[in-house]
Design goal:
Elements lengths: L4 E5 L5 E5 L2 E5 L14 E8 L12 E8 L3 E5 L2 E9 L10 E9 L2 E5 L9 H7 L4 E3 L10 H12 L3
Parallel strand pairs: 3-4, 4-5, 9-10
Antiparallel strand pairs: 1-2, 2-3, 6-7, 7-8, 8-9
Length: about 160
């Protein structure tokens, strides 16, 4: 029997993902800089996809561990986490820098948080999106991909390789 998965959204790119009794916060913001409410949460760990003010307000999370843009595979409680290099723009990070996409696996669930993905990924990165139970993908069109690009990514990741 699978453990219980709970996902909460706090606006923008700020989420908590809890499996069993372990909670990870991802990309916390401070609210005010985005004209959103302020959300202070408790979590076992916090993941940050990149070093921009609207994703790196770790002071909003009371957490035992802070992980900033870490690449590769590692464990956080019951989660196997993989941080994968992506970019915040279509120029391989020249305009807005690098972004870390996080793939979290726990029990039968796979959650992918794309941070501020700013480009349509190539096949290697698309492989990290495949099989996701939940795909958290930004849509904005100014600092991230737009709705058409998001749909393209979702369509591509759904196809078998």
């Amino acid at each position: 029997m699978a453990g219980k998965l709970r996902v909460e959204w706090f606006g923008h790119s700020y989420f908590t993902v809890a499996y069993e009794d372990y909670t990870i916060a991802i990309d916390p913001h401070d609210g005010g800089s985005l004209n959103l409410p302020e959300y202070r949460v408790r979590a076992d760990a916090v993941l940050v996809t990149h070093n921009h003010y609207d994703h790196n307000a770790v002071e909003m999370v009371e957490a035992g561990e802070v992980v900033r843009w870490r690449r590769g595979r590692f464990r956080l409680g019951p989660f196997t986490v993989e941080g994968v290099l992506s970019y915040h723009d279509k120029s391989r990070g020249e305009l807005r820098g690098e972004n870390t996409l996080y793939r979290l696996e726990a029990g039968p669930y796979t959650i992918v948080h794309a941070g501020d993905l700013g480009h349509v990924p190539g096949e290697e990165l698309l492989q990290k999106l495949r099989g996701a139970s939940i795909l958290m993908i930004p849509v904005g069109g100014v600092y991230t991909i737009d709705a058409e690009e998001a749909w393209e990514i979702i369509s591509k990741r759904s196809r078998a390789s």
